[in-house]
Amino acid sequence: MKRKYLYLTLLVVSAAFIVSCSKTGLLNKEPLSQLTNSTLGKNTNDTVRFTTAAQAEALLATCYSDFRTEMYQLDLFVNGDMRSDNSYYGAEGNPDYPAIDNFTVNSTNGNIARDWKDLYLMVNHANTVIINVPKISDPSLTASRQKQIVAEAQFIRAWAYFDLVRLYGNIPLVLNEVPAINSNNITQVYPILYPPQVPSPKVYAQIIADLQAALPYVRVTAPNKGYVTKGAIYALLAKVYATMVPLDWNKVSEYSDSVINGRYALVSNYDYLWDGNHKNSSEAILEINYDGNWNAGTGDWGASMFLGADWKKFDTPSHALVNAFLAAGDAVRFKSSINWQDVSGIWTDKHWSSNQYPFSNKIRDYQSGTSDIILLRLAEILLLKAEALNDLGQTAQAAMYINQVRNRVGLPNTTANTQIAMRSAIEDERFLELAFEGKRWFYLVRTDRAVEVMDKVENGLYKGRVSKYKYVYPIPQEQIDLNPNLKQNPGY
């Protein structure tokens, strides 16, 4: 029984993390653990059941709070940028990060284990909402709000599974809460405690099912970009159809159009996205809002991981990225994306001179913790639309979308006029436009370009280190030890 309870703790800790709802979306959170069992109610199986509208809102707020874990304040950029040609591990001390950077990870890597647990916790919180909120009969919970709460949780579950399947490949698909164990239900509970892996196409099918089910009930607009809206669902669907095999470029184009023709517009100045004075802009589709309130858990401590000369930071920009900005004459995005400082006498680095040392610069407020994190924005979808059109043989039309992104930062129209040239131009544009947003590695994997690109980085720094089996992480060993139905990914 000990192993069962250990695994249970990895998936089910909802009651300890349930939080009160907030008018600021991905913001204020307050533990619901202060509520007593008599307040919550108990059924004949001695498990908590939810009966009030306030509890429904609190359960949903728990799901939103999961966007403020280390997974999204730090590891989003470790997994999406540091593994790519955007940057390399800069900070010193923890061996888990250089192992990721150098493609020498194994199944005992602490980062990989943490992300697995954070994302499955996110799944379980969403499951709690999806399963329990429809059962609440409190008259103050309107039918429309009830459906909206469930729909937002379905999006969040889909988001978590999209990250899980891209990070780990074949994974368990958990769609139910893990119930309390007793002598009468062990046979039924066992498969939930020890879920087997399923092929990634089944995971993608569930992601799409969740997003499609949620679409009719989420809002078109919200008080800020910290809430799930129809635009966020359309954007995630476009990304999913561009990632799952076989790719469906018609679907990518269709869902990109739904975003592009919606209520979004590129901000006039690229730096507005990062300067802290234009939060929840017209370009943002989904944005984690931070206000620097450390006591409420709404300060972005992750900002201090990337910028500042007090200690050596993560995600140090690569020569490949710097050279790409310079070669493109892209002064606007270069200045917004990379901050140069003199760290002479503080530390040395084999890649850069101490008197001119680069930092990623898109999460800037590392002192007060008010830097938002934009998870989805229009420019990415414009480039995805261009990619879809080009792969559908409509190269001239694709140019119109890439040019919108280029012209915003003062660059001329693309000269690409063949499908192959346009494919390369889109890749280059994504490199510059989306640097340090946790996107690059996943693009290189879904286009099967990771091996070729990484072999050329930094005069062969990574040559021979990247193999296709490393497109996904190993399954954490601690999970395999707990769950006998898990099998390690090939190659690890």
Question: Can you describe this structure?
Answer:
The structure is a single chain. It contains 20 helices and 8 strands. The two termini are 29 Å apart. The strands form 4 sheets. It has a two-stranded antiparallel sheet with strand order 1-5. A two-stranded antiparallel ribbon has the order 2-3. Strands 4-8 form a two-stranded antiparallel ribbon. The chain has a domain of 218 residues: Serine Threonine Protein Phosphatase 5, Tetratricopeptide repeat (Alpha Horseshoe), CATH 1.25.40. The longest helix has 26 residues. The protein is mostly helical and 492 residues long. The protein is 46% helix and 5% strand. The protein is globular, with a radius of gyration of 23 Å. The N terminus is likely disordered.
Summarize the structure.
The chain has 492 residues and is mostly helical. The protein has 20 helices and eight strands. The protein has helices at residues 2-11, 14-17, 37-40, 53-65, 70-82, 96-101, 110-132, 143-168, 186-193, 200-214, 230-241, 249-260, 319-328, 331-337, 378-391, 395-408, 419-433, 440-446, 450-455, 477-482, and strands at 87-88, 171-172, 197-198, 284-288, 316-317, 338-341, 357-360, 373-377.
